[in-house]
Amino acid sequence: MALRFMTAEEAADLISHDDVVGFSGFTPAGSVKSIPVAIGEKAKAAHAQGKPFKIGVITGASTGDSLDGSLARAEAVKFRTPYQSNADLRNLINAGKADYFDSHLSTVGQTIRYGFLGKMNWGIIEACDVTEQGEIVLTTGVGISPTICQYADRLLIELNSYHPKRLRGMHDLLVVADPPHRREIPIYRASDRAGAEVIKVDPGKIAGVVLTNHADEVGGFAGSDEVTNRIGMNVADFLSNELRKGRIPSSFLPLQSGVGNIANAVLAALGEHKGIPDFEMYTEVIQDSVIQLMETGRIKFASGCSLTVSQEMLSHVYDNLDFFHERIVLRPQEISNSPEVARRLGIVSMNTALEVDLFGNVNSTNVMGRKMMNGIGGSGDFTRNAYISIFSCPSVAKGGKISAFVPMVSHTDHSEHSVQVIITEQGIADLRSKSPKAKMEAIIENCVHPDYREALRDYANLAGDTHTPCTLSAAFGMHMEFERSGDMRNINWGDCFRR
Ligand code: 0RQ
């Protein structure tokens, strides 16, 4: 069947108010860049005429500004799941103008197939190649594309010539069978392949193909500083010590690392550390640092869901595609983040916290308990199932006015039952096999910033001698102090009791 080529505006015209749309990609990698801009314009025009226009937006993870930014600025988002990191969309969500539900990324595909998200009217997929036989070759991010292609009523393809067709073969695409007859995912090493190179659909389902030529909208890194470098070194020291003590197999374990500056610095430190052998990644996002370490031979193989690298780095990868084809596989997030595979391979998870409480409960998403930052992403998929789960963060935020360590987190993403090790630039708190009281001591002594150590010791003393020392009237005292005076260092526990 001949493919029907059209403009982005013609494609956007097919989308109606209230439609639910599944978009390709994972992070800005592999996200579509033309049709959502045209949908945003269509929404603005409708709103100018007093007509409603909003769509449900389901993606793999965050996207680029052309998708989340354009739709947010047009106020065209009815609901959004499972992860976002765009400032305009974040503002819309926190203003209560777009419904957002934050989900573990490994579960999104099955949630769609189970029908929990309702009907999906459209799938919009970025491809580097599409054939009249209905074969689709994805680009730099896989996300939930295989499920979208299976489940959506109709498909629109952005055929992006920025990405070479030779990407074919880098993807390993598998939609797992659903319960009650689900079988195991046959991945026993990070480099194993279990699926197909392409997505195959009924060509009659493809309503149109839009030709584009756009780079992924991946932002740069702030670069490392003293704090992130120290965190990185502490993580590397911790893992090399575990290896020395025989608590990590001598062949080492596959690593998962989150996104952002801290994750980048941690990987750089691991690459440099003499006590860490060459290693593999079983992770979701492959960042610049992974590519660099692959070229020095420190990273032997990386399994991920996306190649979220800067434009310069992507050009470098494309110039040396044969080398990277052998060392990188991109999988659907259901597989890259699979709890089953994470537990089987024994991954070491390394993610970032906004705040941590004295017992090791972690908040990665809601600032002061009520303002959504990005979302839980894949951090829960890995943390809960890791061989060793690590959270790191700077000990303070906002120039020291916020302590990352508080008596009780204002929102919980990862509970003390899953969080094993906390690392800041101050040091390492190993929480494994410790009682709540012992965890509290380890965190205060090793991770808390000196400006807050005394205040948190005072809290611990006030909280008394019980199994989980806690004083309800003061548990959020530091948060309330920040809202009152703008600086948690002004905390006076006596005031909490008088309130
Ligand atoms: O804001 O830049 O305006 O000052 O939060 O903090 O320290 O730069 O760290 O960029 O790595 O982000 C948890 C948000 C950390 C991220 C989070 C402020 C701080 C700064 C960012 P400013 P940093 P990062 C793989 C795994 C959840 C998902 C996940 C995240 C800004 O890592 O979204 O792990 N993780 N996914 O000042 C108020 C606090 C704060 C605070 C920091 N306690 N209160 N603000 N900040 N601590 C990815 C995927 O799944 C795709």
Describe the structure.
With 499 residues, the protein is α/β, with parallel strands linked by helices. The chain has two domains: 8-212, Glutaconate Coenzyme A-transferase (3-Layer(aba) Sandwich); 226-451, Glutaconate Coenzyme A-transferase. Helices cover 32% and strands 19% of the residues. The chain is built from 18 helices and 26 strands. The strands form seven sheets. Strands 1, 2, 3, 4, 5, 6, 7, 8 and 9 form a nine-stranded mixed sheet that branches. A five-stranded mixed sheet has the order 10-16-21-25-26. α3 (65-73) packs parallel to α4 (87-94) and α8 (261-272) packs parallel to α9 (288-295). The model has no long low-confidence stretch (mean pLDDT 96). The structure holds ligand 0RQ. Residues 27, 61, 83, 105, 258-262, 284-285, 351-352, 354-355, 364, 367, 373-374, 376-379, 394, 397-398, 402, 404 line the site of ligand 0RQ.
CATH topology annotation of the largest domain: Glutaconate Coenzyme A-transferase
Catalogue the ligands.
ligand 0RQ
Give the helix level as a range of percent.
Answer: 25-40%
Global Rg: 23 Å
Distance between the termini: 72 Å
Strand elements, count: 26
InterPro entries: AcetylCoA_hyd_C (IPR026888), AcetylCoA_hyd_C_sf (IPR038460), ActCoA_hydro (IPR046433), ActCoA_hydro_N (IPR003702), NagB/RpiA_transferase-like (IPR037171), Succinate_CoA_transferase (IPR017821)
Keywords: Transferase
Family: Belongs to the acetyl-CoA hydrolase/transferase family.
GO biological process, one term: acetyl-CoA metabolic process
Name the descriptors.
binds ligand 0RQ, single chain, 19% strand, Glutaconate Coenzyme A-transferase, 499 residues, 32% helix, nine-stranded mixed sheet
